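All the exercises in this workshop are built on plain-text protein records. Instead of coordinates, the fold is spelled out as a row of discrete tokens. Once this layout is familiar, the rest of the handout is easier to follow. The record below serves as our worked example for the rest of this section.
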Amino acid sequence: MNNTLVLGLGNTLLKDDGIGVRVIEKLEGENLKAEIRNGATLGFSLFETLKNSEKVIVIDAVDMGEPPGAIARFSAKELLSLPASKKFSLHEIGLLEILKIGRSLNEDFSNVVVIGIQPRDLSHGEELSPEVEKVIHKIIEMIKKEVN
């Protein structure tokens, strides 16, 4: 059995920060051979989720310094090689912090792929900015390729 998890992270009350969750909502109608889970803002429980799946595809808003709506794919190894001062995730306890904890416990998380989307607007509100909304279909295509 395929033990792939597609995990959407983010806070839907902070506009573009909710992109991961919004993508998961759209994926629920798709016929993917993967578990689809709304991770919202899991925090430390993300560690066990990452550890217990053969492959994890994480969708999250990421401050990459790119134009709004830009999409990038990262491996866990790439995230762990970022300078210590770089804040990858927009969450207080983010994916990068969880990966660092895992590395200190000898987890390699080579099963983790991150699809990051550059946000435009992180103010209060539930709607995505037009730049981020219009790339949802591209994100879904990337997820389908990762799952297959």
In short: Helices lie at 19-27, 46-51, 76-80, 95-104, 130-133, 136-147. The beta strands are 4-9, 35-40, 55-61, 71-75, 112-117.
